[in-house]
Amino acid sequence: MTRRQAREQAFILLFEKSFNPEKTIDELLDLAKDLRMLEDDAFVSSLLHTAWDNLEAIDEQISRNSKGWNINRIPKVTLAIIRLALAEILFVDDVPDGVAVNEAVELAKLYATPEDASYINGLLGTVVRLK
Q1: Residues 1 and 41 sit within 8 Å (Cβ to Cβ)
Q2: Which of 5, 30, 41, 106 lies at a 20 to 30 A Cα distance from 88?
Q3: What string of DSSP letters covers 63-80?
Protein backbone atom coordinates (compact mmCIF):
# COMPACT_ATOMS: atom_id res chain seq x y z
CA MET A 1 0.00 0.00 0.00
CA THR A 2 1.35 3.43 -0.89
CA ARG A 3 1.44 6.23 1.65
CA ARG A 4 -1.26 8.02 -0.33
CA GLN A 5 -3.51 4.96 -0.08
CA ALA A 6 -2.67 4.65 3.62
CA ARG A 7 -3.62 8.29 4.21
CA GLU A 8 -6.91 7.73 2.43
CA GLN A 9 -7.64 4.70 4.61
CA ALA A 10 -6.70 6.65 7.75
CA PHE A 11 -8.94 9.53 6.65
CA ILE A 12 -11.90 7.20 6.09
CA LEU A 13 -11.51 5.67 9.54
CA LEU A 14 -11.01 9.03 11.23
CA PHE A 15 -14.16 10.26 9.47
CA GLU A 16 -15.99 7.14 10.62
CA LYS A 17 -14.84 7.79 14.19
CA SER A 18 -16.80 11.06 14.16
CA PHE A 19 -19.99 8.99 13.79
CA ASN A 20 -18.94 6.26 16.23
CA PRO A 21 -17.50 8.07 19.25
CA GLU A 22 -18.06 5.03 21.47
CA LYS A 23 -15.67 2.89 19.40
CA THR A 24 -11.94 3.05 19.93
CA ILE A 25 -9.51 3.55 17.07
CA ASP A 26 -8.38 -0.06 17.50
CA GLU A 27 -11.97 -1.32 17.28
CA LEU A 28 -12.48 0.62 14.04
CA LEU A 29 -9.20 -0.70 12.63
CA ASP A 30 -10.07 -4.28 13.58
CA LEU A 31 -13.56 -4.01 12.11
CA ALA A 32 -12.19 -2.61 8.84
CA LYS A 33 -9.65 -5.45 8.67
CA ASP A 34 -12.30 -8.08 9.49
CA LEU A 35 -14.54 -6.73 6.73
CA ARG A 36 -11.52 -6.69 4.39
CA MET A 37 -11.96 -2.96 3.86
CA LEU A 38 -8.41 -2.32 5.03
CA GLU A 39 -5.08 -4.02 4.63
CA ASP A 40 -3.03 -4.40 7.77
CA ASP A 41 -0.73 -1.40 7.45
CA ALA A 42 1.49 0.07 10.15
CA PHE A 43 1.38 3.59 8.66
CA VAL A 44 -2.44 3.67 8.73
CA SER A 45 -2.49 2.55 12.33
CA SER A 46 0.28 4.93 13.37
CA LEU A 47 -1.30 7.92 11.65
CA LEU A 48 -4.73 7.20 13.12
CA HIS A 49 -3.36 6.80 16.63
CA THR A 50 -1.25 9.95 16.26
CA ALA A 51 -4.29 11.96 15.15
CA TRP A 52 -6.58 10.61 17.83
CA ASP A 53 -4.06 10.69 20.69
CA ASN A 54 -3.26 14.34 19.92
CA LEU A 55 -6.79 15.43 19.03
CA GLU A 56 -6.95 18.18 21.66
CA ALA A 57 -3.75 19.86 20.41
CA ILE A 58 -4.83 19.40 16.79
CA ASP A 59 -8.27 20.90 17.42
CA GLU A 60 -6.64 23.82 19.25
CA GLN A 61 -4.59 24.55 16.11
CA ILE A 62 -7.73 24.35 13.99
CA SER A 63 -9.64 26.70 16.29
CA ARG A 64 -6.74 29.15 16.51
CA ASN A 65 -6.22 29.30 12.74
CA SER A 66 -9.78 29.02 11.40
CA LYS A 67 -10.64 32.56 10.50
CA GLY A 68 -14.36 33.09 10.93
CA TRP A 69 -15.14 29.40 11.43
CA ASN A 70 -16.09 27.63 14.61
CA ILE A 71 -14.68 24.08 14.61
CA ASN A 72 -18.21 22.72 15.14
CA ARG A 73 -19.32 24.28 11.84
CA ILE A 74 -16.60 22.70 9.72
CA PRO A 75 -18.04 19.77 7.72
CA LYS A 76 -17.01 16.39 9.15
CA VAL A 77 -15.24 15.35 5.95
CA THR A 78 -13.19 18.54 5.91
CA LEU A 79 -12.47 18.29 9.62
CA ALA A 80 -11.22 14.70 9.29
CA ILE A 81 -8.88 15.71 6.45
CA ILE A 82 -7.52 18.67 8.40
CA ARG A 83 -7.03 16.60 11.56
CA LEU A 84 -5.12 13.95 9.66
CA ALA A 85 -2.89 16.49 7.93
CA LEU A 86 -2.18 18.34 11.18
CA ALA A 87 -1.26 15.05 12.84
CA GLU A 88 1.43 14.64 10.18
CA ILE A 89 2.54 18.27 10.24
CA LEU A 90 2.78 18.53 14.01
CA PHE A 91 3.69 15.02 15.15
CA VAL A 92 5.26 12.99 12.30
CA ASP A 93 8.88 13.93 11.67
CA ASP A 94 9.52 11.91 8.50
CA VAL A 95 6.81 13.59 6.40
CA PRO A 96 7.62 17.02 4.95
CA ASP A 97 4.97 19.63 5.74
CA GLY A 98 4.42 20.34 2.05
CA VAL A 99 3.64 16.69 1.39
CA ALA A 100 1.08 16.61 4.22
CA VAL A 101 -0.60 19.76 2.88
CA ASN A 102 -0.64 18.46 -0.72
CA GLU A 103 -2.03 15.09 0.32
CA ALA A 104 -4.79 16.79 2.33
CA VAL A 105 -5.75 18.94 -0.66
CA GLU A 106 -5.84 15.85 -2.88
CA LEU A 107 -8.11 14.06 -0.38
CA ALA A 108 -10.38 17.11 -0.36
CA LYS A 109 -10.57 17.05 -4.15
CA LEU A 110 -11.82 13.45 -3.93
CA TYR A 111 -14.13 13.67 -0.93
CA ALA A 112 -15.10 17.32 -0.48
CA THR A 113 -15.66 20.41 -2.60
CA PRO A 114 -13.18 22.71 -4.37
CA GLU A 115 -14.01 25.35 -1.74
CA ASP A 116 -13.11 22.87 1.01
CA ALA A 117 -9.83 22.07 -0.73
CA SER A 118 -9.00 25.77 -0.86
CA TYR A 119 -9.96 26.25 2.80
CA ILE A 120 -7.84 23.26 3.84
CA ASN A 121 -4.87 24.54 1.85
CA GLY A 122 -5.14 27.98 3.45
CA LEU A 123 -5.57 26.72 7.00
CA LEU A 124 -2.73 24.21 6.77
CA GLY A 125 -0.50 26.77 5.08
CA THR A 126 -1.09 29.14 7.99
CA VAL A 127 -0.22 26.46 10.54
CA VAL A 128 2.96 25.55 8.65
CA ARG A 129 4.06 29.18 8.43
CA LEU A 130 3.49 29.72 12.15
CA LYS A 131 5.15 26.45 13.17
Answers
A1: yes
A2: 30
A3: HHH-TT--GGGS-HHHHH
Strands (DSSP E) contained in the chain are none
Is the CA virtual torsion 117, 122, 125, 131 positive or negative?
Answer: negative
Q: With contact defined as beta carbons under 8 Å apart, do 89 and 131 qualify?
A: yes
CA–CA separation, 34 vs 81, rounded Å?
24
Residue (of 123, 95, 99, 119) closest to 109 by Cα position: 119
pTM as predicted: 0.93
The answer to whether 74 and 82 have CB atoms below 8 angstroms apart is yes
CATH number assigned to the domain with residue range 3-130, chosen from the 4 options 1.10.3470.10, 3.10.450.540, 3.30.420.60, 1.10.940.10: 1.10.940.10
Distance CA(35)–CA(29), nearest Å, equals: 10
In this prediction, residue 67 carries a pLDDT of 77
Q: What percent of the chain has pLDDT over 90?
A: 81
